[in-house]
Amino acid sequence: MYIGLLPQSGFESIDHIRNRLLWHFTEEWIDRLLSSDYPPFLERDGLLYTNMTRQHEIRLPDWQTASHALIEQDGSHAVIKTTVYLAHFADFENPADGSEGELQLRFYFVDGLIDYSPDFPRFIE
After folding, report:
1. 50 and 104 share a domain?
2. pTM, two decimal places
3. Are residues 30 and 71 in the same domain?
């Protein structure tokens, strides 16, 4: 089920979203995300939609609580472990049913951009 993005989101097209993602992610990562069998965004007849069928669970990290540790580095490649406090909601309709806790993530960087994180397999289906 795709739902239209609100005009105040500021995004006008898939290319606009792609260009914003390039600030933080490698082109390869973005291409995998946007060309997956169930892409998070869809553009039809000049309108932009978001794929709500992907929202089977919600993780809401509080990035202000995040701590980061360099695990390894080899030239322009690095692995960072991030610990962040979050609320996890299995039921989109009843967020009060969620539990809070810490989440540990491992991010892979190439030239300062996030490339691949096995902790987010839903992004590279």
Report:
1. no
2. 0.68
3. no
